[in-house]
Amino acid sequence: MKHDIPSFRFTLVAVLLLMPTFATAAETARPPDGPLRLEDALARAEAASPLVRRAAAERQAVAAREVGAGLLFPANPVLVGGAGPRREGPLPDQRGLQYFLHAEQTVEIGGQRGARRALARQALRTAVLREEIARAETRARVRAAYVGAQLALARVDAAAEREALVGRLLAAVEARVAGGAAAEVDLQLARIERGSAARARFDAGLAVADALARLRALIGLAPAQALELPRAVSLPPPRQADLPSLIERGRRQRAELAALASGYAELDAEIALLRREAIPSPTLFIEAQRDLPGQLFVGGGVAVPVPLWRRQQGQLAIAHAERARTAEELALLEREVALEVERAFHGEAAQREMATLLDRDVRPAAEAAVALTTEGWRAGKLDLFRVIQTARDASESRRLYLETLGLLWESAIALDRAVGSP
Question: What CATH number corresponds to the domain at position 270?
């Protein structure tokens, strides 16, 4: 049992170190209590997202470079020694033990250590910005999936409402056919419409299952785990800024631009390091040597490499070319960001106008038309086909509104992503 004690201690330490990770994973996998709010979904997704976790691991790996960059000496000291018998003769015959010791240490005098630490800090800032990019992308995906699931649930409610309406209409038709007040053809038309409504509800249910599965995958829930969302989906809040200010905000806040600019500064730091590394690092040495008894030499000196042939020319040429390429990428990305903001801005404005029109005028008119035609049919003034067609038009108006609302939310999320909003 004594040989198992170190293994047990190592296991205990590992468990203690990993307990926060296990707790976070368990908290993420635990099903939510009640309807899942968007804020909770975003928090769960950031903890479970492969993009964020990989970016965080990359940031930790980059942060570890500071350990090597902060070393005081560029190389370990070198110790050389030797010993052996020595004899000089023939007359007089001199013998003795010869030995020597040599110690040397390379030191930096050109500020290379400070340049290495500056490069490591800049690389860490770039890694942090890339992690922010991963978080922004994850948040945009989760918002789109969350709203998409809510709209899918709204389509189910609309399909169920249509099916209930058709069911009531079918019951009324059956009663009128039984009383001789309606023809058999009306009954068959009502049955066909009920089948169409049931099919629409079935398709909407499949869309809900797919949308919830996508959302579960993003927030780290197990398949088929219970997930409840708020049913109401409102219009996104209106924009208070105009297009030029949004474009300027995107150039200022977009994490991709900041990461690319940080990469450009990182290349500047690398070029500064390469230039400092071209400065020779002298090697200080001290020697002690004994040839024969009474012959002892102790001395020291300095060795300086002459930068005649190699002065980091190749590495500097590559770094300058990479910096020029990064500058070009930065200019292109700034233009792409402006175009993304403009496209999303106009798309959101158009979809908002259409969604407002449908919600304010079309949907109430369609519902009123259904009620009026139903009353007219009950009074014998309209035929059943007119009622069914009006119900279809009302269902189509609800579908068009939900579709437009989804496109509006997609444009709003794309605009937030383009301007770098959280």
Answer: 1.20.1600.10
pLDDT of res. 195 = 92
Note the pLDDT of residue 30.
60
Give the Cα separation of 172 and 196 in Å (integer).
Answer: 18
In a domain, 243, yes or no: yes
Q: Which of 152, 130, 149 is nearest to 141 (CA)?
A: 149
Q: Give the pLDDT confidence score for residue 85 in this predicted structure.
A: 86
Helix or strand (DSSP H, E) at 96: strand 94-106
The b-or-e profile of 400-413 (16+ CB within 10 A means b, else e) is bbbbbbbbbbbbbb
DSSP 8-state assignment for residue 93 = -
Does any domain span residue 89? Answer: no
Position 352 scores a pLDDT of 94
DSSP 178-217: HTTSS-HHHHHHHHHHHHHHHHHHHHHHHHHHHHHHHHHH
Question: What does DSSP assign to residue 76?
Answer: -
Does residue 90 lie within any of the structural domains? no
Single pTM value for the model: 0.80
Q: Which domain holds residue 366?
A: 36-82+97-419
**Cβ atoms of 281 and 300 closer than 8 Å:** no
Q: At 191, list the tokens.
A: 């049955």
**Helix (H), strand (E) at residue 105:** strand 94-106
Residues in the chain predicted with pLDDT less than 70, given as ranges, are: 1-33, 89-93, 422
Total number of domains constituting the chain: 1
Which residues have a Cβ under 8 Å from the Cβ of 333 and sit 6 or more positions away?
A: 256, 257, 260
211 burial type by CB count under 10 A (0-12 exposed, 13-18 middle, 19+ buried): buried
Q: Is residue 408 part of a domain?
A: yes
Residue type for position 4: D
